[in-house]
Structures are given as structure tokens and as C-alpha cells.
Amino acid sequence: MLFAGSSAEAQRKPDPDGDSVVARGEYLARAGDCIACHTAPEGRTFSGGRAMPTPFGTLYSSNITPDRDTGIGKWTAEDFYKAMHYGRFPDGGLMYPAMPFASYTKVTRADTEAIFAYLKSIPPVNQRNREHDLRFPYSNRQLILGWRTLYFSEGEFKPDPTKSAEWNRGAYLVEGLGHCGMCHSPINALGGTSQSDAFKGGLIPMQNWYAPSLTSNREAGLGDWSIKDITDLLQTGVSMRGVVYGPMAEVVHNSLQYLNDDDTRAMAVYLKGIAEPSPSPPASSTLPTSESSLLISLGKTVYDKHCASCHGTQGEGKPPHWPPLANNQSIEMQSAVNPIRMVLNGGYPPGTNGNPMPYGMPPFAGLLSDNEIAAVVSYIRTAWGNRGAPVSAREANELRSAPLN
């Protein structure tokens, strides 16, 4: 997704080493991906109003421009720190945890004040915040007290003395400003994640995309990736090992491409360090063996006709632009949501400074039936030594109505 506000002023690359606090704050705001939530499609930068559907109703992001009547123009640096660190408004009111204060609490006061200085420097926009549309009883903010008791631990990031400075910088960015755990951790029925499940992957609520585990090497764990392949993926959206699509493409476009080489490498070192060897589980499918065999046979026909020209007859791909499908972790995961959606909807990696004209994949939703979609995905997940399980036509049909952004 591209935002109307992400041109001109927002495309200028921030300078973290600039001689002003504002320049550093701009860089840190990019690292925190603030623009993604606080800018609505076709909206003014940071003026809020972006709808954020949740299982409990729809939240609308707030105006964080320095407008004195409708934004944060009357806030003090202390007010902003309390919002970031404690998840509270200046009057002490509780913020809904769609604001990632559970991650931002790790951000240092100096960095928080720099972000605030940057936000105070941008053009004010007079746009009132839209009321949230939450079902009862979730509209009662006092319930957030229970959520905070279960899932919120306040406190700035504490470096691990047994790790390198580079690893700790990466941890600070991934766990704190980057709030990567918001998507890459399983979310339970209360909208929370236990600390023991951090970065273990899960379905993103209301978006029907699966954010894979960052700890498991059979999902998105990067333990066997080179540092260069990881940094390429974070900075450009493409690498010799894979390509980002969906919500992750938005993160790369709005945030990660703007990080300097040192910070990108630090994130890569940290992400590689938390990955764990994870043997693939035995492939299991609810489909009868005979039906699976028919699907896979049909799938090869569909693949040879529509996919092999880009991804290769043996799934070898043409990296970095057309990713390999053989021995591809994202293809083999237990959840088949992402490969089904890619076949249905296609998509592009993000346009970035390092890859300004990305190659895309066409959608096949209008060309292939549910059976054909299920067949080709089943074939891809089981061919060339891949250890995924076949999928059903019902799964393909259910994802036809998934939101595209």
C-alpha cells in the first residue's frame, strides 16, 4: 500500500547523524514506522484517521501533527514520553494497545524526545480524531487495565551484557521501535501475546496474512541465511533467498529501506541470532490421499502452464526478482495462507531506493478456479523436496474475499 503522504516530504531520507535532534527524530520515526498507522490512504501525513479493523471493532488512528486543537500541539515532551512508555494520554487515560506501547516502552527517553521534536516540526493538520467503533464491552477503556496486567511490562530496553553491541542495537530496533512482535507473534482471543510466545508467528487478525515465526528456521527464522541476504531483504524487499509481499512489503517501503547500513546489519545480526533449528513436522493434510494425488497431478499442469516461465520448471526461480519455490520456507509452512493469497491476488515487492522498479506477480483469481488454485498450491508445497501439505479448494475459496490491503 502506498500512502498519499509518502512522497516529497516523506521520501526524503532522514539523517540519524545530523546535527539536529529533529533530523535524528525523523530517522527514528521512520524506524518506528509511525507513518503506516497515522496516515490514512489519500490522507495528510501523520494526520490520522486510518481505519484499523480488529476482532473487537474498528479503531481509528490519531492525529499526531502539531496542530494545537486536533493534534499533539499542546503536548509536552513528558506527555509524549508517557504515551510511548506507559500507553497513557496526557490526562492519564488509557490507550488501546493497537498503539504498540508494549514495544515502544523499550525506547529510551532521548530517542522518544527526538521523535517528539521531529513531530513538532512538521506542518500541523487540523483534522479531528474519529471516534472508535468498538462493540460492547470493548468500548469500555477500563477493560484495558486487565489487558495491561496480563500482557504489558513497562521498562526501557536493557542490553544483554553477554551479547555484542551490534546484537543489542538490533534487539533494541526489533523489539522496541520496530515493534516486529506485533505481527510476528501469536495473538490470543484477548488481543494479547505471552512473552514466551514472542516472535513465534501467527495469523494477523482481520488481514488474513500469516506473519511467520522469526525464531523457527522452518518458517522465517534466518539462522541459515547470510547477513547480506537478510540486509538485502530488509533494505530492498528482495534478496537471493526470498521476496517480501503483503504487510511486510509495506513495512519495507515505509520504514526499513530508510535505515542506515549499520542499523540494518544490527537487525540482521539479531534476527539471525534468535533463529533456532526447527525440523519440519511431518506433512499432514485433512484431504484423503486419493484427492491429494489428483490435486497435485492437476497442479503440475497448472504450474507448467502459468508459473514455470518465471519460477523455473524445477522451482529454482530467477532470484532476486523471481524467488525460488524449491526449498522455500514460506512455501512449506504449516499455514498455507500466504502462498494461496499470492496465487489468488499476486502482488509486488515494495518500490525502494535499492529496487525502484520491482518485478511483480500477476493475480490468478479471475483465471483459475478454486480447484486449480488449490491444485497448484498443493503442487508447489509438495514438489522438489518441499515438505508442505496439500490444501483444499475450500481454503482457496475462503481467501478469495480476504481484504487486499
Automatic annotation (TrEMBL):
Cofactor field:
heme c
The protein's matches in SUPFAM superfamilies, at most eight in alphabetical order, are given as:
Cytochrome c
One Gene Ontology cellular component annotation?
A: membrane
- Pfam families for the chain: Cytochrom_C
- Where do the segments described as Disordered lie? 1-20
Q: Where does heme c 1 bind?
A: C34, C37, H38
What is this protein's record name? Alcohol dehydrogenase
Record keywords: Transport included? yes
The note on the cofactor says:
Binds 3 heme c groups covalently per subunit.
Q: Which GO terms describe its molecular function?
A: electron transfer activity; heme binding; iron ion binding; oxidoreductase activity, acting on CH-OH group of donors
Which positions in this protein are listed as binding heme c 2? Answer: C180, C183, H184
Q: Which InterPro entries match?
A: Cyt_c-like_dom (IPR009056), Cyt_c-like_dom_sf (IPR036909), Cyt_C_IC (IPR008168), Cytochrome_c-type_DH (IPR051459), Membr-bd_ADH_cyt_c (IPR014353)
Domain Cytochrome c intervals: 20-123, 165-275, 294-384
The answer to whether the entry has keyword Transit peptide is no
Q: Where does heme c 3 bind?
A: C307, C310, H311
Instruction: List keywords of the entry alphabetically.
Output: Electron transport, Heme, Iron, Metal-binding, Respiratory chain, Transport
